[in-house]
Design brief:
The chain is of the alpha/beta class. It folds into 2 domains: 6-159, no CATH class; 161-421, Rossmann fold. 44% of the residues lie in helices and 14% in strands. It is built from 15 helices and 11 strands. It has helices spanning 49-61, 68-74, 80-89, 104-113, 144-153, 161-165, 174-186, 194-208, 245-263, 282-288, 292-309, 328-340, 343-364, 372-393, 408-411, and strands spanning 118-124, 127-133, 136-137, 158-159, 213-219, 223-228, 231-239, 268-274, 315-318, 397-401, 419-421. The strands form 4 sheets. It has a 5-stranded parallel beta sheet, sandwiched between helices. A two-stranded antiparallel sheet has the order 1-2. It has a two-stranded antiparallel ribbon with strand order 3-4. It is elongated and about 85 Å long. The termini are far apart.
């Protein structure tokens, strides 16, 4: 038998030359560029996965034949007919006024096999423009051809996008990572920082191992607010007894997280923690024309309405009740001292203060601007105190923040605490 020459060897690629678990992302090395028969398909002496994909799929989609030399080099002789049948079978209907994307049948086929694959089409000057979100293959961004082959074979090395963005999530089962990615994308969670995701992964691992998880949602009183454009602005013109701005966002989002944890088999519970300590601020009481007793009465009624609106089991508390007989103000002073002694927190204060100033102007009116730093320090100490009490009182707590994410560093004053924030609404 005559030995094959180097130019006759199939390229090392994830196509049909081996078992799916042994395949790699469709990336061709520079050695390929030395093959004379493949030079017509190169660009700048490189033959990339996207170039290969276009050279193979475009002719098939248009009813033609892909280049024989490239098909032979990739070991695709038996697959071209299959790809053509896929394009015919998944053509389907197209109801838009502009032309259907050339590769629409391929998108439909891949989506039927790979749940992480999604696409959307929009018209630009009457032509379809497709935006694709695809899983990674071997932690590399795949071409359309690679995705088709993976879909054909039930490829074992398709990786959820979350595991590419956040390497720490690779410790989670793929199914959990996919669910978590979908949860973060379909609900208004702010994209977690690396440190947040690391803490979240560890918490989920503990939950999967059998530890109960407590979702804790601190909520503000039902202060007056108004809508300005697509956002909201606190006016502090009144104190209501309904579901406030921050609490309404918790009500809409937190149940999805609770039920997802339960679907994973995690024992989860929900606690809505109202910031009753704000009833001790005499200036706030004067502005709202409330007494401390009337403030707390309205806050308690707000909590009842929040629980009625929540689409999952939950209980309501006042934050200071967690102090268990300790002096809340003494705990706040301890937190304040720790914040002032922390170089990291002090370095973060200017940026946090810049983000909070609009709120402080609405809340405290004509207070001199240079007093805003004092207000921030006091509130930061309150956040730190809440975090300390949550960590001490709840099993494996995960805090759901619905105010402004700039306050996140204060939650970590006494140590690591998992926190997920919703996107800012005011």
């Amino acid at each position: 038998m005559q030995a094959q020459g180097a130019d006759d060897q199939p390229l090392a690629s994830p196509l049909l030359s081996g078992p799916p678990s042994a395949t790699a992302a469709l990336v061709v090395t520079s050695k390929v560029t030395a093959r004379p028969d493949l030079e017509p398909f190169c660009r700048r002496k490189k033959l990339t996965g996207s170039l290969i994909s276009k050279q193979i799929l475009s002719p098939i989609a248009c009813g033609g034949e892909p280049p024989r030399a490239l098909v032979r080099a990739l070991g695709l002789e038996d697959s071209v007919a299959t790809l053509r049948r896929i394009h015919q079978a998944y053509r389907g209907e197209w109801s838009e006024s502009y032309p259907a994307p050339k590769y629409l049948p391929f998108y439909r086929f891949i989506a039927s096999r790979l749940p992480d694959f999604r696409w959307r089409v929009r018209s630009v000057a009457g032509q379809p423009i497709t935006h694709i979100q695809a899983p990674y293959v071997h932690y590399a961004q795949p071409s359309l051809l690679t995705l088709l082959i993976c879909a054909l074979h039930g490829h074992a090395d398709v990786v959820p996008l979350l595991k590419v963005r956040y390497p720490q999530t690779r410790a989670l089962p793929d199914s959990v990572a996919r669910d978590l990615q979908r949860l973060l994308e379909t609900h208004p969670f702010a994209r977690p920082y690396e440190a947040q995701m690391t803490m979240l992964v560890r918490l989920i691992q503990r939950g999967l191992a059998g530890e109960p998880i407590t979702l804790v949602a601190p909520v503000c009183p039902d202060y007056g607010y108004k809508k300005v454009g697509n956002r909201y602005r606190y006016t502090f013109s009144r104190l209501g007894s309904g579901v406030g701005l921050v609490a309404s966002r918790v009500v809409k989002t937190l149940p999805a997280l609770y039920w997802q944890l339960r679907q994973w088999g995690v024992a989860a519970s929900v606690v809505v923690a109202a910031g009753d300590f704000e009833a001790a601020d005499t200036q706030t009481l004067a502005r709202l024309h409330e007494t401390r007793a009337s403030f707390l009465d309205k806050l308690a009624r707000s909590q009842e309405r929040i629980l009625q609106a929540m689409a999952c089991p939950a209980r309501a508390i006042f934050v200071t009740d967690l102090a268990d007989g300790r002096d809340w103000l003494r705990l706040v002073r301890e937190s304040r001292t720790r914040i002032q002694a922390s170089p990291e927190l002090q370095a973060a204060v200017p940026a946090i203060l810049s983000a909070r100033r609009p709120l402080y102007r609405a809340w405290f009116g004509d207070w001199p601007t240079n007093d805003h730093g004092e207000i921030l320090l006091r509130q930061g100490a309150e956040y730190a105190s809440m975090a300390k009490l949550f960590a001490e009182n709840f099993d494996t707590p995960l805090v759901i923040g619905a105010d402004h994410r700039c306050m996140l560093p204060f939650y970590w004053t006494f140590g690591a605490l998992p926190v997920l924030y919703l996107k800012a609404a005011y």
